[in-house]
Write a structure and sequence with these properties.
It is a single chain. The protein has 447 residues and is α/β, with parallel strands linked by helices. It has two domains: 212 residues, Enolpyruvate transferase domain (UDP-n-acetylglucosamine1-carboxyvinyl-transferase, Chain, Alpha-beta prism); 209 residues, Enolpyruvate transferase domain (UDP-n-acetylglucosamine1-carboxyvinyl-transferase, Chain, Alpha-beta prism), CATH 3.65.10. The chain has 13 helices and 25 strands. Helix 1 runs parallel beside helix 2 and helix 7 runs parallel beside helix 9. The longest helix has 14 residues. The protein binds shikimate-3-phosphate (S3P) and phosphoenolpyruvate. The site of shikimate-3-phosphate has 12 residues, from helix 5. The site of phosphoenolpyruvate (PEP) has 8 residues, from helix 3. It comes from Niabella yanshanensis. Pfam families: EPSP_synthase. Pathway: Metabolic intermediate biosynthesis; chorismate biosynthesis; chorismate from D-erythrose 4-phosphate and phosphoenolpyruvate: step 6/7. Its EC number is 2.5.1.19.
């Protein structure tokens, strides 16, 4: 599916989408909390749909209520055999294309004593999972993988032990282990996970926040180097309601669109969120963008902007919107953290260089650094999402002020995180042709 974006001036206000990081965690916490929880503002991206499917496979019952989703996981119990709900799939779960889902739900599936095959689709089949080959056997789980890639076949039950893991490739493995350790029985007074070189730390804050809100046992966080679970830790909040946060990762594209081509207002992004990508506001300020933040909304308007320096090591998903922003900033913008991009839906440092290169933007890569030579204008042309949702959205946003039309091939990649993206920018006045019939997707999930 191709989408063509013509140069446009944006105007009006828009509500940011639901965060898939928050929604997928809510599904995971809802599963292991073994109770009835209500999740408000649920997302409907492909990654969210994958997470809902996984917890249903693992025995949770999801009902779609008027205001939110009811997750009933009273039948889930660590160390027990789970009655698989997905009929002919037997002991199998499918994580779609979601890196977070496979890395978070594999340790949770291993809480049961079932033999389970874990699979995925698209770019996920090439993303590294060898972490599991090394770590799961240390905690009582047998694992077979395809040379560190999918499919995985695991069998628990997982038994928490003191372990040391590497956090440099992704924080997502730690997210899964923290959720699993929170509910699995362990010997002794405490058990800990030591982590070397943890990256994407704010995502762990989000995990701990969701665990707390679902009343799970929350570990002591020793400076992101060790997480200690104490047996006698007091119970945390025991509410049964969780509201999925507005998405700073998808919202970053709206904010950048406003700074490039707008006079818009974005609602639903909380400054008190722990989401890593809240840092986009710092980049916009460093670029001298027209931004004003108040309690209800973030206002953006187009103005002359300057090149800036930014460290995206702990918020790697900001690279694509940052490149779109930097393209319209005068001078050379320097962004650190390129090494975090190699194993996303595409090798994003190179993909950004190549696709934005087609629009006439010079992007240099030098080890962990990216240099974006901005301020010279972009030309509309044919670009390709490379099956990467964030590349499609970055090109679409950059196209709003390019000279001439930009056509994005495989533009539907946005469904992974932000299926309403083209509708939303259209609402703001973007001239978008082609696109996706979202009605089928929105109805796709039946509780
Ligand atoms: O936990 C999460 O929700 C995510 C963590 C980040 O991954 P890494 O920890 O691999 O950087 C991020 O890039 C990904 O899109 C979502
Ligand atoms: C890399 C991403 O997600 P995940 O790792 O969960 O697939 C992303 O959303 O950009």
């Amino acid at each position: 599916m191709k989408v063509t974006i013509s140069p446009s001036a944006l105007k009006g206000d828009i509500l940011a989408p639901a965060s898939k990081s928050s929604m997928q965690r809510a599904c995971a916490a809802g599963l292991v909390a073994a109770k009835r929880s209500v999740v408000y503002n649920p997302g409907h991206s492909n990654d969210d749909i994958a997470a809902m499917g996984i917890i249903q496979s693992l025995g949770a019952i999801i009902e779609k209520g008027n205001e939110g989703l009811v997750i009933d996981s009273t039948g889930f119990s660590p160390a027990a055999e789970v009655a698989f709900m997905n009929g002919d799939q037997g002991g199998a779960i499918n994580c779609g294309e979601s890196g977070l889902s496979i890395r978070m739900f594999t340790p949770l599936a291993a809480l049961t004593s079932n033999k389970i095959t874990i699979n995925g689709e698209g770019s996920l089949v090439t993303r590294p999972m060898d972490f599991f080959d090394e770590i799961l056997p240390q905690i009582g789980v047998t694992v077979e993988s395809n040379g560190g890639k999918l499919p995985l076949v695991i069998q628990g039950p997982l038994q928490p032990k003191n372990i040391t893991i590497d956090g440099s490739l992704s924080s997502q493995f730690l997210t899964g282990l923290l959720l699993a350790y929170a509910v699995a029985p362990f010997e002794g007074d405490s058990v800990s996970i030591k982590v070397n070189n943890l990256k994407s730390k704010p995502y762990i804050d989000l995990t701990l926040d969701v665990m707390k809100k679902f009343g799970l046992k929350v570990p002591e966080n020793k400076n992101y180097e060790e997480f200690v679970f104490h047996k006698d830790a007091p119970a945390t909040e025991t509410t049964s309601n969780y509201t999925v946060e507005g998405d700073w990762s998808g919202g970053a594209f709206l904010l950048v669109a406003g700074a490039i081509a707008g006079n818009i207002s974005v609602r639903g992004l909380s400054m008190s969120s722990t989401q890593a990508d809240k840092k986009i506001t710092e980049a916009l300020m460093a670029a001298n963008a027209g931004i004003a933040i108040d309690a209800k909304a973030i206002q953006l308007h187009q103005t002359e902007m300057n090149a800036f320096e930014f460290d995206a090591t702990d918020c790697p998903d900001l690279f694509p919107p940052l490149v779109a922003l930097a393209a319209y900033c005068n001078g050379v913008t320097k962004i650190k953290g390129v090494s975090r991009l190699a194993h996303k839906e595409s090798d994003r440092g190179i993909t950004l260089q190549e696709e934005f290169g087609k629009m006439g933007l010079k992007v240099d890569l030098d080890g962990d650094l990216m240099y974006v030579h901005g301020g010279n204008g972009l030309k509309g042309t044919l670009v390709h999402s490379r099956h990467d949702h964030r590349i499609a959205m970055a090109c679409a946003v950059a196209a709003l002020r390019a000279e001439g039309d930009t056509t994005i091939e495989e533009a539907y990649a946005v469904n992974k995180s932000y299926p309403d993206f083209y509708d939303h920018i259209k609402t703001l006045g973007a001239r978008v042709k082609g696109g996706i019939d979202l009605s089928a997707l929105k109805e796709g999930f039946k509780g």
